[in-house]
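Sample entry (117 residues):
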Amino acid sequence: MKTLISLLVFFIVAAPLMAQQSMTTQTQRQINISRKLINDKRNTALAYNMKFTQEEKEKFWPLYREYREAMGNVGDKRLGVIVDYADHINRMTETKAKQVLDRSSQWRRNHPGQEDT
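Predicted structure, serialized as tokens:
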């Protein structure tokens, strides 16, 4: 739950920041650091709470890493829409607004129930 709240706070803070400036290397670095911290905490919580046998560990962690990578790709797509919006906020044309809205709508259709995560 804390991870979810941290992630939500991050996006609440990051979205307005990105709306003011385009994605910089420093911003990307901050996003990467935040993601790493969240993933480390998530992995620690799982390892602590799930009392795996050695055999279970060998099966679980590769699948879990694959799942997290796929979810990271989903997050990257969502972040791409946010960054695209932020990069064009001060010079948004009607055509560009429609493109961003279409991408956002497509993301929401492809990932129902994840709007608030």
